[in-house]
């Protein structure tokens, strides 16, 4: 599971959950993958990212990446920021671990890099 | 005609757990190819496939319709299918260029909030066979069991697609004659989507067609 995937996942399908975002990550195994850097792609993707949730994910994983507290104003001109965003969003893969609903504590397992967000019928709102 | 994605990494054993691409799968690829120019013009940034199975359709799009890197979401309730989609994407050497996100879930339940109005291209080869219910136990049954009129899963997917599609977004789906185009049209119109048939094909036992949905 890449951090960009995590940035798009919510648990608000669960009964009693209002927002369900962001999910907390407990990572047992994280791999590094290499993805071709494409400036245009990252620039187009960034507006769709919930930045605070990304920073929380980086923190959950204990990654040694420096993301500023707020996104820079002129993102397009900030090559260093774009490259860091590329690395953080695309190049870390959580292979084994859990996603945790911030409101109910319900755990969703991640195995072989794939998060399992399936619910029992009794859990669905 | 674009080549079919390389599926040589799969064995008989894999196909006991995931849907083996068949006439319906290839019909979807052919339909997409018919719409090549429209899709290229769309320059899809975010692509989503419901029930990706072997990953053949997502891989086909990534390979031939996305000249610049795109963000792919492939979902499936079957974890073996999720993993198989990942393998197919990698077998076809797309994982360094494009970003594939795979989630095991029921339709797009955990993604719909964040991807609302953001998806440029949606693909679905659904379980379309009329059966007593679509709520079946066996994973292999889930690949075809469509419930009443074969549209129980289709109906939910159309509703979700209406929330996911970007303003110019396109949704391509395979269907069976028995699903009834007029029913599909009603379901689409109810959620503010237009629908057109873009390709038809007959096989020994099925009359298949592919439809294109877009926002009204």
UniProtKB/TrEMBL annotation, chain A:
Source superkingdom: Eukaryota
Pfam families: Trm112p (PF03966)
One of the record's GO molecular function terms: protein heterodimerization activity
GO biological process: rRNA (guanine-N7)-methylation; tRNA methylation
Family to which this protein belongs: Belongs to the TRM112 family.
Protein's recorded name: Multifunctional methyltransferase subunit TRM112-like protein
TrEMBL record, chain B:
InterPro entries, alphabetized: DNA_methylase_N6_adenine_CS, Euk-Arch_PrmC-MTase, PrmC-related, SAM-dependent_MTases_sf, Small_mtfrase_dom
Top-rank taxon, per record: Eukaryota
Record GO biological process: methylation
Description of how the protein assembles with itself and partners: Heterodimer; heterodimerization with TRMT112 is required for S-adenosyl-L-methionine-binding.
Presence of keyword Nucleus: yes
Keyword tags: Methyltransferase, Nucleus, S-adenosyl-L-methionine, Transferase
Similarity field: Belongs to the eukaryotic/archaeal PrmC-related family.
Catalytic activity from the UniProt record: methylarsonous acid + S-adenosyl-L-methionine = dimethylarsinate + S-adenosyl-L-homocysteine + 2 H(+); L-lysyl-[histone] + S-adenosyl-L-methionine = N(6)-methyl-L-lysyl-[histone] + S-adenosyl-L-homocysteine + H(+)
Organism of provenance: Rotaria socialis
Protein name: Methyltransferase HEMK2
Coiled-coil stretches: none
NCBIfam families: hemK_rel_arch
